[in-house]
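RECORD TYPE: inverse folding
INPUT: C-alpha cells
STRUCTURE:
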C-alpha cells in the first residue's frame, strides 16, 4: 500500500507543526525561550511540557485532557 500525497491536514498536524517550530526556533517564541522537556504518558494522546530541570509536578498540559 502507498500513501497519497493528497493527505488532508488535520488539527493535530497543525498542533505538531507549531510545536516543532517552537522547538526549532525558540527565539521566535518568547514564552518558549527556555528549554523544555515534553512528556507523554499515552503515546502522544496527551502531551505535557515542563522546563528543563523543573520537578515533574510543575508540568503543563499542552495537548489532550488532564489524566
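DESIGNED SEQUENCE:
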Amino acid at each position: 500500500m502507498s500513501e497519497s500525497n493528497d493527505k488532508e491536514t488535520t488539527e493535530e498536524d497543525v498542533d505538531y507543526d507549531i510545536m516543532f517550530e517552537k522547538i526549532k526556533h525558540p527565539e521566535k517564541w518568547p514564552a518558549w525561550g527556555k528549554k523544555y522537556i515534553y512528556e507523554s504518558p499515552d503515546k502522544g494522546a496527551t502531551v505535557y511540557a515542563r522546563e528543563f530541570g523543573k520537578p515533574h509536578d510543575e508540568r503543563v498540559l499542552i495537548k489532550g485532557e488532564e489524566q
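NOTES: The two ends are 36 Å apart (CA to CA).
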